Amino acid sequence: MDVLFFRKINMKKIIGKYLLKLLGWKLKIHGDPKVLDRCILVVAPHTHNDEYLLGNFAFWQLGKPLKIIIKDAHTKAWYGGIVKALGGIGIDRSQRNDLVNFVANEFKKEDFALVITPEGTRSFVEKWRKGFYHMAMTAKVPIVLAAGDFKTKTIYLGYHLPYEKYSTMSYEEILDDFRNYFIAHEIHPKVKENWNPNFQ
Q: Where do the DSSP E strands lie in the chain?
């Protein structure tokens, strides 16, 4: 069983690396990639579905577990096995009212990076949703930024705020830190008009 597991992981690494290379994308890791093993992964800018596919390929290449919360109807459907293999965590309506604790309990079961898009939509928004912050605080895991620069075809991963740091910061200070990161790295989203670099 262990041999099959490692073969599966190695296969995903090969596939992820091949697909990114085929599409002309490269990875830029900030700091220790181990932080990607267990974290809330804040993906921004979020302007197109391509970001999720590219992120999956990147995590496959790195051999890291990546998950996303979706309606349990998708994990229970005939194609549910595929959805779960791509990192889908099914959640029913009764759990949605307590999503923060649901996520914290999932982190107690295993290590993974949980994808959160605080913009909540691919359209232009003024404010980010605070869910990522509350999830990270309750689970006491790092908040890691993930960004795709569609101009240079670069995926940036690894910049993070450890729990010990952001737990002493205000929410506004955290957002200031993230805005400075996006400015410093000149991130170019796929759909420019859908990105608000002055998010609140």
A: 26-29, 39-43, 66-71, 88-91, 113-116, 143-149, 154-161
Q: Is 29 contained in some domain? A: yes
Nearest to 59 by CA among 79, 81, 35: 35
Locate 170 and state its tokens.
């205000």
- Chain centroid to CA 46: how far? 11
Gap between the Cα atoms of 103 and 139, Å rounded: 7
12: in domain: no
Token pair in block for residue 86: 């791509």
8 Å CB contact between 42 and 118: yes
In a domain, 7, yes or no: no
The average confidence (pLDDT) of the chain is 90
pLDDT at 1: 45
Looking at the 3D structure of the chain, how many domains does it have? 1
| 17 domain-assigned | no
Cross-strand pairs, 146: 43, 157
* pLDDT, tens only, 43-72: 999 999 899 889 999 999 999 999 988 887
**pLDDT of res. 98:** 85
Write out the residue range of the structural domain in which residue 126 sits.
Answer: 25-194
